[in-house]
Write a structure and sequence with these properties.
448 residues, alpha/beta, TIM Barrel, nine-stranded mixed β-sheet, eight-stranded parallel β-sheet, 19 strands, globular, metal-binding, Dihydroorotase
Length: 448
Amino acid sequence: MSLKQTLIKNAKIVNEGKTISGDVLIEGEFIKAIDSSISAKSSDVLVIDAEGKHLLPGAIDDQVHFREPGLTHKATIATESKAAIAGGITSFIEMPNTIPQTTTVENLEAKFEIAANTSYANYSFMFGGTNDNLDEILKVDPKTVAGLKLFLGSSTGNMLVDDPKVLEKIFKSTKMVISVHCEDEGTIRSNLKEYKAKFGDDIPIKYHPIIRSEEACYLSSSKAIELAKKTGARLHVFHLSTGKETNLFTNKIPLKDKKITSEVCIHHLWFNSDDYDKKGTLIKWNPAVKTEKDRLQIWDALLDDRIDVIATDHAPHTLEEKKNVYTKAPSGGPLVQHALPALLEMYHRGKISIEKIVEKNAHNPAILFEVEKRGYIKPGYYADLVLVDLNNPWTVTKENILYKCGWSPFEGATFKSRITHTFLNGALVYQNQKVSEVKHAKRLTFNR
């Protein structure tokens, strides 16, 4: 029996810094061939005419919170991975601050089991570090898990790693990529105390980036980098939010040789502190969206390769939770369905090329985490692919939002570009604004 084939014709194929016109043949789960013209050899090949559309490798989102287990009133692996597929994100790496936390191998495997049964997109998880779980960290197989996540600020439960001796021991002991959330807790507590004295719990949201300040971010990031340099650890700093922090990173060496890397999230590229007036706590994130100057400096660092990866930090909460007063409103928002359309909007505005978008949200996460056979359009690679029409406008409305929480910080925004098809492991899983109910997701594997 021959393997199922799909032939994508007449696409503008975006890969490794170039856009070429051509065809892509998919056989089974993999890309079989790429050429200027490929003919269907039999009548049972699914042929898709991609005339006028761009074909991108599926995005790999290195930081999401899908809330399962334990917080499933906000989201589940099923609901959010479905939204990711509609947003052109074909693989995700999910964070450990669920309930229970992913800080034991047993809890990690339980999460993998949920994803194996319910995920619409390819999946892996971060293992979580605490002040007292080094033994568990050492049990984790780096070939089967994305990496290690440490909260050096803004943690839930007992996940704040604030013992310097433990931190150094973890940095010295693991070969995994250590991904960190960097905000100095002492600075934030002191700032919060000051504003609570003035306003009580109902602090105006505009003070969020002053409470979770540039100083809090820089102090924590610079300490983590110093420790990585001292121990030789492989460090990845999540969600940079300040211009000042970008100067801690280099573009002088290729990504594959970097020991210290960084990420920016879509909200820090899109919003600035002026948006709090209109969006309120809906754009309350940790770290906070900061000034327009910070946003522009982050863009500069992304485009000159001091920042390596674009991610979402997708972190849904219910609308009811978000509409609480400042101290009770949780930080985070849903983003996986709208991140790629938002980036393509920045392309239309002349801010970034499509080739650079692909580099930052597909190629580079694959290099950084050593993801096996994904993140590129190459023969022999898994066919995780996204077709986009750059001239097919649509508006984000309640009716077309797929997140379980039912809202988006982009509500009301009109995007010029539309994702028309998503392929996952060779299967067509999204078209005509619908995600297929047949699941084709696989656990990510790593070349380590």
